[in-house]
Amino acid sequence: MTGRLHGIGSAERQSPTVQFYLDGKIVTGMVGEPVAMSLWALGERTLGWNEESGEPRGVFCNIGHCFECRMTIAGQPDQRACLYPVREGLEVRRQPRPSALTIVDGMTRL
Amino acid sequence: MAPQVIVIGAGVIGSACAYYLSQAGASVTLIDQGDVGSGTSSRCDGNVLAIDKEPGYDSLMALMSQRLLHELASVLPPFEYRRPGSYLVCDNDEEAKAAWDWVGQQQEAGLPFWYLDRAAIHSHLPHLASDVPAGLYCGSDSTLNPLLYTQRLVQAAKQHGCQVRVHQAVTEIVVNRGAVAGVRLADGTVLVADVVVVAAGVWSPRLLQPLGVTVPIQPRKGHLLVSAKGPLFGDAKVMEFGYLMSKFGRERQAPEDALRYGVALVYEPTESHNFLLGSSRELGVWDTAPKWDVVQAIGRRALRFYPGMQQATLIRSYAGLRPWTPDHLPVVSRVSDIAGLVIAAGHEGDGIGLASVTGHLVCDLTLERPPIIDPRPLRWDRPALTSWKDGGADG
Amino acid sequence: MDEEIKVERSSAVVVCRCEHLTWDAIEEAMAMFQPTSLRQLKLVTRWGMGICQGRMCRPIMAAFEQREENASLGALAVRPPFKPVSLGTLGRMGEDA
Lengths: 110, 395, 97
Hints:
The complex is a heterotrimer of chains A (110), B (395) and C (97).
Chain A: E1 17-22, E2 25-30, H1 35-41, E3 48-49, E4 56-57, E5 70-73, E6 76-80, E7 91-93, H2 106-109
Chain B: E1 4-8, H1 12-23, E2 27-31, E3 47-48, H2 57-75, E4 86-89, H3 93-108, E5 113-116, H4 118-124, E6 135-138, E7 142-143, H5 146-159, E8 163-165, E9 170-176, E10 179-185, E11 190-192, E12 195-198, H6 204-208, E13 218-227, E14 237-240, H7 256-260, E15 266-269, E16 275-278, E17 282-283, H8 292-305, E18 313-324, E19 331-334, E20 341-345, H9 351-367, H10 383-386
Parallel strand pairs in B: 1-2, 1-12, 2-8, 4-14, 12-20
Antiparallel strand pairs in B: 3-7, 4-6, 5-6, 9-10, 10-11, 13-16, 13-17, 13-18, 14-15, 15-16, 19-20
Chain C: E1 14-16, E2 21-22, H1 23-33, H2 38-45, H3 58-66, E3 85-86, H4 87-92
Antiparallel strand pairs in C: 1-2
Organism (chain A): Sulfobacillus acidophilus
Protein name (chain A): Sarcosine oxidase subunit alpha
Keywords (chain A): Oxidoreductase
């Protein structure tokens, strides 16, 4: 598969591809791949943003331990993209940084 | 000459006592068997509530404490203090009727309560399950980080000369000829004092019993669940009205597991972009290890009111021991037969909220100043406590 | 790898990814609060309180403890759930399929 930067192994693989969605955009992956690796092959390294610092985050341990790769997959937040296998039509969304609390003093609103 | 005071227990209550006493010029030693706040004050949530208090003394004390806390928030370094108000939500029409009466009573007493009918409660809390018929709001309620609050009180007390001793258990309060002389530590050392304040939460009875002072404080275990960071379900605290039903002499309608563990919804968003879920009640349990059945019961109760929480991620649970008393009022009291002995314990679920008024009152009692509130309902020898017998009805 | 783990103070060193805590922040909290246990340190910094619940940062905490002054800081409790679980799944657990 030309243009896919896997970096692990150089032999061409015969796996069929699937189309799935990253934040609503159609992307492709190979059957059996974890979401994070399909995205890695496409050059998509940012899987989300740290909730405290707002910094982009992506794959870290890649073995389902650290949760740095957490994404909302098939509607379920905090899924480990490094473990979750792609499939046809899978909805993958990056989790935005949560907004700060807006109500500080209810008494002043009354 | 400034009195020498030893405060036993560096939880939120003891720390508040140390703060007010140090501010007032007393020479204070704050001592704890563990770290600052390592007891119940680091195993709780950050609720500061008037919404669930009986109009009358209960309410008065809570409001006074809220006012003092608001002052402390402007004086101490930050401890995630916010005052968004709090909500109670009703499970069914029976509760809605009781809530209407509750708000009426509170408004008559001049408190900032509002009844919220079906349209209003869903407008305020859009994530709520659509069948919730009503609720109420109390504007003076606030929230904070309890351990951080405790630390700030201790830091400020230290600035006024308070000595802090951690990981040093007190084995005995030394009394000589009807007056406190000091405390004995595990290694045999005796620290002398004119006044000893027992602010040791659930551990208070074992310090007082040898002196012939019986205070029926028991642990009432409560669980909390912690969510991952992510979207919140509102900025204010929300609890369910159901557990107040006993105040009206009415039976609460709830699922069997909720009743068994005294589960009542508590939703508390925090500044760390996550939320806590509570709550549960089990009297007489000392073990702070979370029990999965209870965790599950709390989770299910949260889903009943917030069906959208199905996808929320739970990352941890923990549990703490509320110091329960038979009449649900704390003991903040001198002990008439033993000069210099002061008790400040038994706040059952309201320690965080009532720490400021307790600390102030302990300072008043110790230094013989006019008490900030009437101390009589909080006496250690009040009938509700002296007449209570082990194995009696659970409050 | 027998070398001692050397962790140098730096605002560039992130010791807790989940809560985005730098080494600087930990040192500041140590100075401000003087915690006398790992649990206390955790409670005043949020170190170990994020979604990984200390899985990634505990080895760094251990290196921290190797420093003589921190030797007796103790351990952290592990509490359920032992991996994150959705509330929906929690609610359905124990029900017959």
